[in-house]
Amino acid sequence: MASNAFARLLFCNTSKYLVKNSIPKQNVRLLSSPAADNYEFIKVSTAGAKNNVGLITLNRPKALNALCNGLMLEVSKALDSLEANRQIGAIIITGSEKAFAAGADIKEMQNNTFAQCINSSFLEHWNRVSKTLKPVIAAVNGYALGGGCELAMMCDIIYAGENAKFGQPEILIGTIPGAGGTQRLPRFVGKSKAMEIALTGAQVPAQEAEKMGLVAKVFPVDKLLDETIKLGEKIAGNSQLITRLCKESVNIAYETTLAEGLHFEKRLFHATFATKDRKEGMTAFVEKRPPNFINE
Q1: What is the pLDDT of residue 38?
Q2: What is the pTM assigned to this prediction?
Q3: Which residues are catalytic?
């Protein structure tokens, strides 16, 4: 949730960033809806050869993408829009090469009182990311500290650049993680490592984060977004309906016992046999041709 004070660093605009990461311009397209023009702290675009991957880029360069209330409200708004878009099959959240998000905006919360936090349900709307029905992938370069680390963990998959650093430094400024850091981190890395990270505020480099299971894969900095878009395209190529069921089944593993989870999984598996996409997928396999999913 918290952020240390880092040196002022500049963040390239979307087009320069994509060129630097060797992504063809025709494969990334800014959304041209009226809503897209209203974003102050993020940029929203589509990516991939079929423009079926949503791309949310955090854009507070002078603050190293510190997560202010306005930014998180905009992320929620963008997720609402991308979820409603039937063409979008996966969503990516990313930042700059210097910072995914260096933490929450400390200046914004510095003078909060306990009563204000309770009465305003402070940080409650941050959970919108974890409630997204479509798969969400975090593409993390640079700092992902405090709220930035928590935001990445709300996503379904984390891909990281070689320069990425994860951590929960809240303890260093007299507070604790407040957006899932103490709850999600142990589920990813186990109690001992989670305690070490949370109680010391230490930063974890990308390679170590991959070894402990926090990160799925690590790539060179200039290849990260390209590889994440490829992953998004691969996911988006499947049935969106079946993908949602699969995501729900995996997530239930964190919420219930093994026996209950296995029962839930079996029922969702059975439910796929009521869908047109399950029939199409198996028929295409037997006929040795690509499936034509219609998300029904």
Answers
A1: 84
A2: 0.86
A3: 104, 147, 150, 170
